[in-house]
Automatic annotation (TrEMBL):
Coiled-coil ranges (or none): none
Entry's transmembrane regions: none
KW Lyase (keyword) present: no
A GO MF label: NAD binding
Active site: 169
Name by which UniProt lists this protein: 3-hydroxyisobutyrate dehydrogenase
Catalytically driven reaction(s): 3-hydroxy-2-methylpropanoate + NAD(+) = 2-methyl-3-oxopropanoate + NADH + H(+)
Lineage of origin: Bacteria, Bacillati, Actinomycetota, Actinomycetes, Kitasatosporales
EC number: 1.1.1.31
6-phosphogluconate dehydrogenase NADP-binding domain location: 5-160
Record GO biological process: L-valine catabolic process
3-hydroxyisobutyrate dehydrogenase-like NAD-binding domain location: 163-288
Amino acid sequence: MTTTLAFIGLGHMGGPMAANLVRAGHRVRGHDTASEQLAAAATAGVEPAGSAARAVADADAVFTMLPAGRHVLDLYQDVLAAARPGTLFVDCSTIAVADARTAHDRAAAVGMRMLDAPVSGGVVGAEAGTLTFMAGGGPDEFAEAEPLLAAMGRKSVHCGGPGAGQAAKICNNMILGISMIAVSEAFVLGESLGLTPQALYDVAATSSGQCWALTTNCPVPGPVPTSPANHDYRPGFAAPLMAKDLRLAADAARSGGVRTELGLRAAELYQAYAQGAGAEADFSGIVRDIRQRSGGQA
Ligand code: NAD
């Protein structure tokens, strides 16, 4: 069934996601504060709406893909009243669980419905339509959104009530950030002990050290030809985005009194890396930081 959709935030992720909704046969009215993003989306068939309020006015569902929680909350403040009563708002941005819950409350207060539905899969997944969505909200809202999410992704998981999608996202990425540091430290230690990266890889990839950070996004060049390490650490999943997700996890842990010792340390290490040499690198490039701080050549 063709639906009229609004898509606000047409950047690296939102642009290709909106294009996939157009490809699936939907009418998509888009808005972005950056004119170049809007123009790029228009070439893919997204109709520039002129403003966010105009984009949502006759939409059956409203997607947002914005940088951070304050952008989502500010935008909701501006546009919730402009939508038809009962419109489904689906926020795919990665934001704090608390901000997502506030957004749900504000939507419900004016008669709108909402899902938080952050993604994993990065720009490559957004372009290929192979994202994974993790959704928080009511079961009816999830059922309604699922066919639309299927036009942009391969898998959607209903994680629970308001904020549950964001909770799943930051918990998953906390595992990933910690495991990438663990794998990187192991390679640097192995090198200092005279072990070749290939030898360590061959053992760990088929032993209990096996994990995605090792076998898909291997931080050293060689063992996994498709990993960013073989392409001068071009992202991939950029280090500043990992730093952001770990900061959200750390904030949630602190406010909940949860002792995520490694998660907090990973957040510190990624923040330092993302502010320095890793500003434009894949998050696996942290191996070079660890090597350098150990007295080796980055
Ligand atoms: P981006 O900066 O490329 O895109 C965000 C877009 O939002 C920009 O084009 C910006 O101009 C627009 N924008 C900001 N405020 C706006 C407003 N008030 N109204 C309309 N447009 C506005 O960022 P991105 O890489 O597309 O990431 C978007 C979200 O997805 C972030 O929350 C990020 O954490 C998350 N995410 C990104 C990736 C990734 O690999 N890039 C992966 C998973 C999740």
